[in-house]
Write a structure and sequence with these properties.
2 domains; globular; about 15% helix; alpha+beta; six-stranded antiparallel sheet; about 200 residues; three-stranded antiparallel sheet
Length: about 200
């Protein structure tokens, strides 16, 4: 009986030491595995391929006008506007562009989603047709009392096309991942010059 108790105690001790060692090794490997390569820095005037979209930033500015491309701003508020050329690279019309750009939380409240407008007629969130470049405006309401930034950062999100997804076996754009970061200078107003390549 005593020998049996000793055997069990020895087995538990060895198991405990083994578990602690496994946890320690996993922690060390996890710490090294958590290191990520920095994202590529994208040129502000470059054409950026996100899979679904070809983007070309044109200009950014802050406006305190009552309307920005038909979008009503809060009284006394300001909006950060980014104009860019967007080309739909897919085979059908889509408006899957709401998450292709993520503004830096240092400039814009992450909970604030931009209004997205077609600049030529102020249509809100239109579907864009394949192969037709369109000038679009992303409009973020700035926090009350915020000063106009000299520049702001964006993360560009890329998706991958799959002819068949794992769940429904249908084609689509999946796996959004950061493609790179972009820093855009902010001009003095809507009449600011476009970014020159």
């Amino acid at each position: 009986m005593l020998e049996s108790a000793r055997s069990r105690l020895k087995a538990w001790t060895v198991a405990g030491i083994g578990t602690a060692a496994a946890i320690a090794v996993a922690g060390v490997l996890g710490a090294f595995g958590a290191r990520h390569e920095p994202l590529p820095v994208l040129a502000p005037a470059s054409r950026i391929d996100t899979g679904e979209w070809l983007l070309r930033p044109l200009k950014a500015y802050v406006t305190a006008e009552k309307y920005a491309y038909g979008t009503l701003l809060k009284p006394g508020g300001k909006a950060l506007v980014l104009e860019l050329e967007m080309t739909n690279r897919t085979a059908k019309s889509t408006k899957d562009y709401f998450d292709v750009l993520q503004a830096s939380p240092a400039t814009v409240d992450p909970a604030t989603k931009p209004f997205i407008v077609l600049t030529r007629d102020s249509t809100m969130s239109p579907e864009l047709h394949p192969g037709m470049p369109e000038r679009m405006a992303y409009i973020w309401q700035l926090p009350d009392g915020a000063a106009a930034p000299a520049s702001f950062g964006l993360t560009v999100i890329r998706k991958t096309y799959k002819p068949r997804d794992n769940l429904y076996g249908l084609p689509g754009w999946f796996n959004p991942t950061p493609a790179g970061t972009l820093t855009i200078a902010v001009g003095a107003g809507p009449d600011s010059a476009d970014i020159q390549p």
